[in-house]
Amino acid sequence: MGAPCADSRLGFLGRLRDACGSGALPLLGQWELTCRCNLNCVMCYTDPFNTPGRIRRELATPEILRILGELRDAGCLELCLTGGEPLARPDFIGIYTRAKELGFLLTLFTNGTLITPKVADHLKRYTPRMIEISFHGMTRASFDGITQGPGSYDRCREGIRLLLERGLPLTIKTLGMTVNRDEVREIKAWAGGLAGVQYQFGSVLRPRLDGATDADRIQLPVEEVRRIERADAQFRAERRLQDRRYRRSLRRDGVRCGGGRFRFHIDAYGQLSLCSENRRQGYDLRSGSFREGFFAALPGFPCPNRCPAAPTDAERDTHAAQALAARPQTVPGGPP
Ligand code: SF4
Q1: Do 266 and 67 touch, CB atoms closer than 8 A?
Q2: 41 lines ligand 1 (CB under 6 A)
Q3: pTM of the prediction?
Q4: 24-251+261-332, CATH topology level
Q5: Is 40 in the pocket of ligand 1 (CB under 6 A)?
Q6: In which residue ranges of the chain is pLDDT below 70?
Q7: Residue 132 Cβ < 6 Å to ligand 1
Q8: Ligand 1 centre from 76 Cα, in Å?
Q9: What is the pLDDT of residue 21?
Q10: What does the CA dihedral 126, 127, 132, 133 come to, rounded to 10 degrees?
Q11: What is the per-residue pLDDT for 214?
Q12: Mutate to test the pocket of ligand 1, among 85, 173, 331 (most ligand atoms within 8 A of CB)
């Protein structure tokens, strides 16, 4: 199966969004199914909650299945299932299959190391829109050093092989950090040689969920991110495209993102929030319904990105630089 056309999908979602006018519709959701993981990446923001005590508090299978039904009934079309490592949940296959049966377009974020022939066969039978695997380095030493998981490089490569053998849609992505900045373009070249595989470079680092700042030391400064982007034609084109979309969104309705309007986030404990980056306030899906949470609670949640007027390009760049500088200097794991 070839890679889906991202533009037609985004165009379709954009037209749906436009048709809603100023209303809200929960088109896209990201669901952090668990914080558990078989690895302990140095930049991971969910890893602090990868503990037995925390894992015991995560949503149980029946709760997840009930919420999936509520999402479908509320009009949600697309879900990104992430973690932690979603495949580390023993019930993952059942959850995933139910989501497919309910008709969601699915994206799966995984570290790739738990993909077995059986899992790959199941994903082939219930094909997701996209599978995204984080790939951190081109050598065993650098990759395993980042994941702190001996053997993870080989297991990840094997997981990728199993997916490609079955023609599944795959995106390889790399989070640029001080510990792998010199390998980004090599990883991209390698991924480019894999038939049908897309590649993404990321640089947005997220604070750890427990507020720890110990990963500061591997945060790439803005100027280094720009240097990597400038050196690659695809990265430059993506930056221009993102900027265009951003300006269009600002012109259209003066807000910088669709959190709480078209997008939402659910954490491993059932807290519904505007997005993964903004967890200042949550609505408890264990005790309330998704419909009430999305339509009644989320519009009142605090969000620094609701801006009354569109900034100029120069203001936008300044905001981005300030946001990076002001953020607790942690590294976004982008689990997995
Ligand atoms: S970044 Fe992903 S693979 Fe690494 S520890 Fe976190 S959840 Fe696991």
Answers
A1: yes
A2: yes
A3: 0.86
A4: TIM Barrel (3.20.20)
A5: yes
A6: 1-8, 10, 12-13, 15-22, 249-256, 306-336
A7: no
A8: 27
A9: 62
A10: 60
A11: 85
A12: 85
Q: Say if CB 134 and CB 155 are below 8 A apart.
A: no
Q: Is the CB of 336 under 6 A from ligand 1?
A: yes
SS3 316: helix
- How far from 51 is each of 34, 40, 214, 215, CA to CA, in Å? 11, 11, 18, 19
Give residue-wise pLDDT tens across range 149-172: 999 999 999 999 999 999 999 999
List the one residue out of 201, 170, 168, 171 whose CA is nearest residue 186. 201
Task: Write the DSSP assignment of 212-234 as a string of letters.
Answer: --TTGGGPPPHHHHHHHHHT-HH
Phi-psi region of 151 (alpha: psi -120 to 50; beta: other; left: phi over 0): left
C-alpha 34 to ligand 1 mean position (Å): 11
- For a mutational test of ligand 1's pocket, the pick from 30, 44, 108, 205, i.e. the residue with the most ligand atoms closer than 8 A to its C-beta, is 44
pLDDT at residue 268 in the model: 98
Q: What is the DSSP string of 104-137?
A: -EEEEEE-STT--HHHHHHHHHT--SEEEEE---
The answer to whether the CB of 332 is under 6 A from ligand 1 is: no
